[in-house]
Write a structure and sequence with these properties.
The chain has 159 residues and is an alpha/beta fold. The protein has a single domain, classed as Response regulator (Rossmann fold), CATH 3.40.50.2300. It is 40% helix and 13% strand. It has five helices and four strands; from the N terminus they run βαβααβαβα. It has a four-stranded parallel beta sheet, sandwiched between helices. Helix 4 links the parallel strand 3 and strand 4. Helix 1 crosses helix 5 and helix 2 packs across helix 5. The protein binds 4-nitrophenyl phosphate. The site of 4-nitrophenyl phosphate (4NP) has 11 residues, from loops. The site of 4-nitrophenyl phosphate has 11 residues, from loops.
Length: 159
């Protein structure tokens, strides 16, 4: 049933590195678990600096080496729509989380806001750090954290 889908929006700052990777990894894990049809998955950024652009080429390359295809196009979050439409809005770091809580407040949607590392199981990270200004190790670290947290999130939701 269309309206029984759990709708999840992943959010970072620019929507070109972390949240597009989260979207691709979580989607792939949902497909592997046979539950993709029960989910609607999207990503957005807090700023619109990269609106309409594909994800960062470095992130696309690192993710593809692990078998994930990142296809999303950057868009800015639309609070009046996204906080109503989505069931869970999942930020990547502490700043994202704080901003999402603030933006959700006028829509009474603060309880929909989470941080990706809330769902960590094996890793001990408490946020997904911004890899934009760093090197290859930063992108690999983001992917490690996202793989772990995506599994945790998938196990956490009732489908
Ligand atoms: P993201 O990384 O939030 O993981 O997409 C960033 C990419 C670009 C910018 C900031 C963060 N930027 O401001 O250009």
């Amino acid at each position: 049933m269309e309206n029984s889908k759990v709708k999840i929006l992943f959010v970072c700052l620019g929507n070109i590195c972390r949240s597009p990777a989260a979207e691709a990894i979580f989607s792939q894990k949902a497909i592997s678990a046979g539950v993709a049809g029960r989910l609607e998955i999207d990503s957005a950024g807090l700023n619109g600096y990269h609106d309409g652009e594909p994800a960062d080429q470095r992130m696309i390359r690192h993710a593809s080496q692990r078998g994930y295809k990142i296809t999303s196009v950057s868009r800015k979050i639309i609070p009046s729509r996204d906080f109503v439409y989505f069931d869970m809005i999942v930020g990547m770091d502490n700043f994202n989380f704080k901003e999402l809580k603030r933006l959700a407040s006028p829509f009474g949607a603060q309880e929909k806001v989470f941080k990706m590392t809330d769902f960590a199981s094996k890793c001990s990270a408490n946020e997904v750090p911004d890899p934009y200004y760093g090197g290859a190790a930063g992108f690999e670290n983001v992917l490690d954290i996202l793989e772990d947290c995506s599994e945790g999130l998938l196990n956490n939701i009732e489908l």
